[in-house]
Specification:
- With about 475 residues, the chain is of the alpha+beta class.
- The strands form six sheets. Strands 11, 14, 17, 18, 19, 20 and 21 form a seven-stranded mixed β-sheet that branches.
- Helix 1 runs parallel beside helix 2 and helix 5 crosses helix 8.
């Protein structure tokens, strides 16, 4: 007979506490096998594909697409035959792309064993432990360890001991007391505990919905935002006589829309707030003539080395920044608050801010300082394609040392970029426009752009920040300087 196995949402790294179910690749009744992709989840950093932990048949999808699930909550169940119960993903398959050791993803599932009811009589002595207990596979972030805790045997007391009878009058068995039903934990007179997250409870309070009157549609019967919103829309608020109703305000024409902040957008918001209020930002601006740089772009495109890659002005901006980092290493550093040290990094993982449907992400090109111009062009193209496809992995989004944000693609001149957490400088590249410019003593129409460099004033002072920005501008005004200074 097949046994039912549940697969819980794992912690795929970096202290994940929750994730959104993006897309199921299987449905109930599908036959699946180990290593097969079953679901895509969106963490705070990236979309991750989870492989199947069993050979068997999908019994039920326990969570709908679009739901946010806490780590450790079952998301899918399988019917597994007796011979396949130990089939789990081995260490040779990595769950996600990342900088974690593949050994940390050694196994993917911990079989879920139904709890056994407590025996009415006193527990029997525990059997001796086997000589070598086999280690059960445990997925990173949840699962049991060998030697899990067990219920202590109840101690006999004088109150629970049966009285000694010398001569019982009858041999009729004594009636056993009926077990009392376990009532939900009371909160207040007439109210019981409900399973709902704090944001859902707040929404219910704001809309005047009584959670105890609702039937949850979420995992394990939990109440979701949709349950509360539906109750509010249909007027089934379930308010009791002792709970005052929330005053209803007529919506304005056009209505309102609420967008859940989760996944990458939630992570980005928290990171930007943390960066803005921990690092003292300073931003400097420089308007430059990039006519020669814009003329160099089509010339590069015609070279055989760049035949299969996209060449844009951003490529030369990136090369100019890498050259400036080599000249001024302090701009490629981080501030260690705990150790009160400045950590100068002699390698460059170049981040490129990218706007995607899921929000702003900053994947980075690893060891960009070691790449030739054509290799850098290829790396930037691959990075952009991966980001637009929503396939950036945690490893692509971590470990950056300095960042470029190309705001010019949005048709604006420049901005005041916020530092990526852990970095001390970020360069903004504005749109290139035809403008009147004094060139060789005459006013001519030239290609002009504005650069903005934001830096952490704890590490980069005004003199250093100005030198870095000035040199980047000089290289973009005359690309030959990149050769002279490289």
């Amino acid at each position: 007979m097949p046994s039912r196995k549940h697969f819980k949402l794992p912690d795929v790294g970096e202290g994940l506490t929750e994730a959104d179910i993006v897309k199921w690749h299987v449905q109930a009744g599908d036959t699946v096998e180990v290593h097969q992709t079953i679901v895509e989840i969106e963490t705070a950093k990236a979309v991750v594909e989870l492989p199947c932990p069993y050979d068997g048949v999908v019994a039920e999808l326990l969570v709908d697409e679009g739901e946010t699930v806490d780590v450790g909550i079952p998301i899918i169940s399988f019917d597994v035959s007796a011979g396949d119960e130990t089939s789990v993903v081995g260490g040779e398959t990595s769950v996600v792309g990342g900088d974690k050791d593949p050994e940390s993803y050694q196994n993917l599932a911990q079989p879920e064993t139904p709890a056994q009811p407590a025996a009415a009589a006193a527990p029997a002595p525990e059997p001796a432990a086997p000589a070598a207990e086999k280690r059960q596979p445990v997925l990173v972030g949840y699962g049991v360890k060998p030697g899990a805790t067990r219920r202590r045997p109840r101690k006999a007391t004088s109150q629970s001991a049966a009285p000694v009878r010398t001569a019982p009058a009858k041999s009729e068995p004594e009636p056993k007391p009926e077990p009392k039903p376990v009532a939900p934990v009371p909160l207040a007179p007439g109210r019981v505990a409900v399973l709902a997250k704090p944001p859902v409870r707040k929404l219910a309070k704001d809309l005047g919905v009584d959670l105890t009157a609702l039937t949850g549609s979420g995992p394990q019967g939990s109440i979701t935002r949709d349950d509360v919103q539906t109750a509010a829309d249909t007027g089934t608020t379930g308010l009791t006589a002792w709970e005052p109703a929330v005053r209803q305000v007529a919506p304005r024409a056009g209505g309102e829309e609420r967008i859940a902040v989760k996944g990458v957008r939630k992570h980005t918001a928290a990171a930007m707030v943390r960066s803005a209020f921990t690092a003292p930002h300073v931003t400097e601006f420089l308007q430059i003539d990039v006519t020669e740089t814009m003329a160099a772009v089509p010339r590069l495109r015609s070279l055989p080395d760049f035949a299969d890659v996209k060449v844009s002005p951003l490529l030369l901006v990136a090369r100019a920044l890498l050259t400036a980092v080599r000249r001024y290493p302090m701009v490629n550093a981080t501030w260690d608050e705990q150790a009160q040290e400045i950590v100068v990094k002699h390698y460059v993982n170049l981040g490129i801010a990218a706007a995607t449907d899921r929000g702003l992400i900053v994947p980075n090109v690893k060891d960009a300082h070691e790449l030739s111009l054509s290799e850098l062009a290829t790396a930037l193209q691959q990075l952009a394609e991966t980001a637009r496809a929503g396939k950036a992995q945690p490893a692509d989004l971590s470990g950056g040392t300095i960042t470029i944000t190309n705001v010019g693609v949005f048709g604006v001149d420049t901005g005041t970029p916020i530092l990526t957490p852990g970095e001390v400088a970020i360069l903004a590249f504005g749109q290139v426009r035809d403008m009147p410019w004094v060139h060789e003593g005459e006013i001519k129409v030239r290609k002009v752009t504005t650069l903005a460099l934001s830096f952490d004033h704890r590490v980069v002072d005004g003199e250093l920040g100005s030198a870095v920005l000035r040199d980047i501008g000089a290289m973009l005004e005359d690309p030959l300087r990149m050769l002279a200074w490289s």
